């Protein structure tokens, strides 16, 4: 069974390790991403996920196996909920786990959402388009801006 697990501060190094795979996959879309001299990618700055109540880090697990992560920004005043970063390991893609977890996140954080994909990442665009069409009943807007596709829609917690 696929499920979300809140990342604890003491698990930060595990999240950083998992993010190395994410950055590696992303590097095929953004040539400016380069390995450092130590053979690893520059880590993300993740402090806000433990210092700001509006940012949430989750591991995605299949039973006990770690298969991905989700970083979410929850709505503040006029700012919508956002998927900050989202990743499923390659061997688990196409099995519905990512879609199931995305739908779960949309229920955990009801309200207005904005999801962004870079133009070059066609698999992400296809994934999010499919999920958003389903979750919103095709009631969403999409715009293209500065090399990014941005979908905006509403969810409920029913």
Task: Break the fold down into its secondary structure elements and pairings.
Layout: E1 2-6, H1 12-26, H2 48-51, E2 55-62, E3 65-73, E4 81-88, H3 97-108, E5 111-118, H4 122-136, E6 140-145, E7 148-155
Parallel strand pairs: 4-5
Antiparallel strand pairs: 1-2, 2-3, 3-4, 5-7, 6-7
C-alpha termini separation: 22 Å
The low-pLDDT segments are none
Q: Which percent range describes the beta-strand content? A: 25-35%
* Count of all domains: 1
Order of strands side by side in the largest beta sheet?
A: 1-2-3-4-5-7-6
Count of helical stretches: 4
Q: What average pLDDT do the residues reach?
A: 95
Q: Based on DSSP secondary structure assignment, what is the total number of beta strands?
A: 7
CATH class: Alpha Beta
* CATH superfamily heading: Gcn5-related N-acetyltransferase (GNAT)
The run of helices and strands is EHHEEEHEHEE
User: What does the overall shape look like?
Assistant: globular
Percent helix: 25-40%
Helix/strand-derived category reads alpha+beta
Largest sheet, if any?
Answer: 7 strands, mixed
By CATH, the architecture is named: 3-Layer(aba) Sandwich
Structural description of this entry:
- The chain has helices spanning 12-26, 48-51, 97-108, 122-136, and strands at residues 2-6, 55-62, 65-73, 81-88, 111-118, 140-145, 148-155.
- It has one domain: Gcn5-related N-acetyltransferase (GNAT) (Aminopeptidase), CATH 3.40.630.30.
- Helices cover 29% and strands 33% of the residues.
- The protein starts with a strand and ends with a strand.
- It has a seven-stranded mixed beta sheet with strand order 1-2-3-4-5-7-6, with helices on both faces.
- With 158 residues, the chain is an alpha+beta fold.
- The chain has four helices and seven strands, in the order βααβββαβαββ.
- A hairpin with a 2-residue loop joins strand 6 (140-145) and strand 7 (148-155).
- The radius of gyration is 15 Å and the shape is globular.
- The longest helix has 15 residues, at 12-26.
